[in-house]
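Usage

Read records sequentially. Each one opens with the input sequence:
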Amino acid sequence: MRLNSLKPAPGAKHLRKRVGRGIGSGHGKTAGLGHKGQKARSGGYHKVGFEGGQMPLQRRLPKRGFVSLSDGLTVEVRLFQVNGIKAETVDLASLKQAGIVPHGALRAKVILAGKIERAVKLQGVLVTKGARAAIEAAGGSVVAPVADQAAASAGKRAQKAKLAVEKAKAVAARVEAAAKAEPAAKVQPGGAKKAKGNEKAESASGAATESGAKGEAGTKTGGKPRGAAKDSSAKEKGK
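and closes with the structure output:
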């Protein structure tokens, strides 16, 4: 075999269709585009699935199925694959280093598939019940993150509940204090009004006593009242 003798297999290559070369070619005149219309024009374009303006098929049919956004983030690991790792402690980093789990995975789960013949400590990796039993039967141990996360979340929930109870108690105490302070606030304006009324009455009585005292002083000194002075002047004019 020589490089200059290489050629495609028979039938693998086809000659290009030469359109618009006369009616004898079978592709003359309209060049295979038919008569008139948008598709017969140069530059005539329509998007894939366009049906002349009516609702296209891909939109008339209902949507079905589900595609998880977290697909591929959790990877299944067979039990015999864990047996092939030489490290005594198997975690997500060691699985990625061994090439069992891709680097983009966030979690790994060991399932019961195959056998394990040595003691392995599985840490920070999810595990099924059957795989856990097989690992523990071989003398290994499992430290799954599920229990730690559950305990942490339970502690957080308890702390939040405690804070909520304390806030409710504080609000109730404020409401009670405001309810007790409202009657006293209502009584104070009335008492202030009474005090103002008493002050006015006292000022009026004081003015009256002062005027009475002045009148008495005038009579004692021999002075005449204003009304008496006017009467005497009128009598003198009459005379």
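Summary fields computed downstream for this record:
- The mean pLDDT is 79.
- The radius of gyration is 54 Å.
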